[in-house]
Specification:
The chain is built from 5 helices and 2 strands; from the N terminus they run H-H-E-E-H-H-H. It is mainly alpha-helical. The protein has a two-stranded antiparallel sheet. The protein is globular and about 45 Å long.
Length: about 130
């Protein structure tokens, strides 16, 4: 519940649905399980990304997208208080695309928190790969 956009309903639904987060190799695989990753239609070395796959758990995906929609609405009302990544994304992309992108990012954060048994810290900087 410490993650922005995730409330008590979303937190309990995620905890109940994902009993073992270690069954996923990465945050991307977890986001793909939720149906939040883009569909790939690549051919001839040309990478084409399409709409989200929507192949996963519809309820969890909906909770994440609704939570991120609330963050986007809050961003429009009070811009200085939002995450700079969201502000940058809203400048470059349409609102619905930014909402789904933030839901994807949040799913990856959720996976990392669940696998490490930590709490969310907004100021956390990931370690750089050497």
């Amino acid at each position: 519940m410490t993650i922005p956009g995730i409330g008590p309903v979303g937190a309990t639904a995620l905890a109940a649905s994902v009993t073992d987060p270690h069954q996923f190799r990465s945050g991307r695989q977890f986001a793909a399980w939720l149906g939040l990753t883009p569909l790939q239609k690549s051919s001839g070395g040309k990478e084409r990304l399409g709409r989200i796959t929507k192949m996963g758990d519809k309820y969890l995906r909906k909770l994440l997208i609704v939570g991120m929609t609330s963050l986007v609405r809050r961003a429009k009302d009070n811009p200085p208080t939002i995450d700079p990544r969201l502000a940058n994304l809203l400048v470059r992309k349409p609102v619905r695309v930014a909402t789904v992108a933030m839901a994807n990012k949040t799913a990856r954060i959720i996976w990392a928190i669940m696998t490490r048994s930590e709490t969310y810290r907004a100021d956390h900087q990931p370690a750089l790969a050497a």
